[in-house]
Amino acid sequence: MTTTHSTHDVGIVGAGLAGLAAARALTADGFDVVVLEARDRVGGRTAEHTLSSGEPIDLGAQWIGTNHDRVLDLVEAFDLELWSQYDDGTDQVAVAGEIFEHDERYRALPAESEATLREAFERIETLRKSVPLESPQDAPTAGAWDGTTLETWKRETITTDAACEAFDAFVRAEFTVEPSQISLLSFLSAVDASGGLEAVTDGDGRTEAYRLVGGIHQLSRRLAEDLGDAIRLGEPVRRIDRTGDTVSLVTAEANYTVSDAIVAMSPPLAGRIEYDLPLSGRREALTQRMPMGSVIKCFAVYEEPFWRSDGCSGSVLATDGILSEVADATLPETGRGALVGFVAGADALEWTDRPVAERRDRVLDDLARYFGPRAGDPIEYVDKAWSTTPWSAGGYNASMAPGTMTTCGDALCGPVDRLYWAGAETATEWSGFMEGAVRSGRRVATEIRERHSS
Question: InterPro entries from the entry (predicted)?
Answer without folding.
Answer: Amino_oxidase, FAD/NAD-bd_sf, Flavin_amine_oxidase, Flavin_MAO
